[in-house]
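Hey, why these numbers?
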Amino acid sequence: MSQTVKNKIIDQVDLLSDSQQRQVLNFAQRLATAPGVPSQDLLRFAGSIDAADLKAMLQAVQDGCERVDRNAW
């Protein structure tokens, strides 16, 4: 990570309360220790979802997730 990114993170964290800073620390620690999955292990799933199911999922996302309800906030 470049020093610039680190400095920007530090600048932002400095603006947070102690409680928020603890949340950032906890999140960073979880990210650093999260187990990864090698991409080659995921290749066996390629093509395993039926094209009709993919189309239905895409439609559901477009119908339900791409809307903003300004009154919900």
